[in-house]
Structure formats: C-alpha cells, structure tokens
Amino acid sequence: MQTEDSSSIDGRKPPRVVALSGGVGGAKLALGLDTVIRADDGRLTVAVNTGDDFEHLGLHISPDLDSVVYALAGISDPLRGWGRANESWNFMRALEGLGGEGWFSLGDRDLALHVERSLRLRQGNSLSHVTAHIAARFNVDATIMPVTDDPVRTMVHTDTGILPFQRYFVGEQCKPAVQGISFAGADQARANPALLSALADPALDAVVLCPSNPYLSIDPILAIPGVRDALRRTTAPVIAVSPIVHGESLKGPTAKIMRELGIEVSPAAIVSHYGDLIDAIVVDSQDAAEAFEIDLPVLATNITMHCMADKEALAREVLHFARTFGASHRSTLQECLP
Ligand code: FO1
C-alpha cells in the first residue's frame, strides 16, 4: 500500500493518472494533466465518453474522442473547443448546395479524420485501435481510449420526445427540457480492458473525473458494466473536479439540466450524484463557503480554465491534492471492500 512519502506525484517518480472525460470541458483539464504529467515523464490515460458518437452522412463521428485528441495534439479550435483550428468549410457549403444535411458542421480537415476512422472501422478495426492510430499520427503521448469499443448511444428524454444526443445538443441547441437520460447499449457494452487494467494498477496515483457534464458525459462512462466497480476498487484516490461554478455550468448545459431534473445546482449536488465513487472534490474558490456541506475532502481553487496556464495550474493542484490525502484515505476504503 502506498504511503504519502512514496507517492509518485510532485516529481518523486513519474506519476500515473487516469482521467475520465467528456468532450470540450473535460479536454481542457486533460490537456493540463497531459502537460504536467509529461514534464514528469509520467503516464496519462484518458478514458473518453462515446455516448455522443453517431453515424452521420455514412461516417462514424466520435466528438468527445476527437475533442480530447485535438486538444492534446494542440490543434483544437480555441473558440469552439470542438473541431480543428484554422478550419475551412468548403465541404459543408458544397453539401448544403446539394440540399444535404447542414445541421451538424464538419470542417474540411476534421472530415478527413471521420472518413479515415470510418474506413478503418469498416475494415474490422476496433474504435480503440483506430483512436490509438489517430492519436499517434498527431504525436499525442497520452493514451486516449474510448471507454468501450461497443456502441453506446446517449438518448435524451425531453418534453418534445426522446432525442439522440446530437439531435438534442446540436440540432435542438439543448433547448428542450430534459426529463431523463438513458444510454442505449450500455448494458451489453464491454468496458475497455485497458481502462480496467489501468484502474487496477497498484502504482496508479490518481483518478480524475474531469469537469465534464456528469449526466451527459460521465454517466455514460459509469453505465458500462465494470467501470463503477473498478473505480470503487482502485487503490488510487478518485477526485472529481466540479463542473459547476457559483450556480452555473463551467461549460454547456449542465446547470440547465440539473434545474430541469429538479437538482440543486451546486458542487454538493455533484458530490451526492457521484456518491461513493469519489474520495474528494475540487470546487471553485467562489464555492469555498459551501465546502462545509460536503462530507469529503474539498480543495477550493480557481477551476475556470481560460488559458493554458490555468489548465496546467489546475492539473498541478489536483495532482498535489491527490497526493496529500489520497493513499491513506483510499487504503481505509479498501479494507471495507469485500
Ligand atoms: N457542436 C456544435 O454545437 N455544432 C456543431 O455543428 C458541431 C459539430 C461537430 C463536429 C465534429 C465534432 O467532433 C464535434 C462537433 N460539435 C459540434 C461538438 C459536439 O457536438 C459536442 O461538443 C459534444 O458532443 C459534447 O461533448
């Protein structure tokens, strides 16, 4: 069992970290973690939500995987967060000129990735394999993997009916009121064995739940059989970074969805949503006064990542936080597991 003195975070030995992430918001922290961990010769594994994936124009689109890959490759669009920087839109214009579907925008450079991925999948390669190939082509060091190679599709139950995720998110701009969320295929999906083995690694230093939407982006990961159990059994501290700051979302519709589902919009509600899966939470300094409501170790710091320095600073703080309480807290929990 690890002790604080032998911890590998803060440069004593190369840190090993697993991050669970959705798309744009999670990718920001994943980039900070990657930069900090690489500087220490450590190893980052990012397991990414695939509930947003869909077939579009005959192509397999994996938006969250792509947001993470592009971010870690340093080529993501800095304003949109999704897709590539310096993008051109000739394909979309040409498609619309033909009367084709224009509601989901595929940039020319981005399109190349979807074509190549779809081809490789059709040739029988797994999504993990194809993702690893793409990440390598972009010189990404971190291991980026889909949480499963099997199809899982997030379905948003709204006041206007049940919508596939991208129809709700992009097509309807998240306007319909959410009444529930389900993950088609999750029950039958097999968790990525590489994720399970990374979580079972006794040398793992931390598991970070990125500040992605817990309901739309992290829950589809947790819905895959075996993932919750692996999180409960990992010897590393599991730390969530709050997606809520001062009653609003860091990014996207998290706060809106919480309100629609009748959930108080606060970091404390995020803690109760994750329940016994997490050992600690990182909240924004603006929510520091709420820490007393949370029955877990809380770090209050600046979690709004506006620039690269913010991303790295938050990553450093999360990893330091993991070291300061992690090992002893986790070993106590392990003694309680059957
Ligand atoms: N988001 C949008 O709001 N509009 C789009 O047209 C759009 C296209 C798109 C294409 C490729 C891709 O990888 C992502 C794209 N996204 C778009 C983002 C994506 O829908 C969401 O950010 C995620 O699914 C939520 O995490």
From TrEMBL:
EC number from the UniProt entry: 2.7.8.28
Record's keyword terms, sorted: Magnesium, Transferase
PANTHER family in the record: 2-PHOSPHO-L-LACTATE TRANSFERASE (PTHR43007:SF1)
Pfam families: CofD
Single GO MF descriptor: LPPG:FO 2-phospho-L-lactate transferase activity
Organism listed in the record: Cupriavidus numazuensis
Name recorded for this polypeptide: Phosphoenolpyruvate transferase
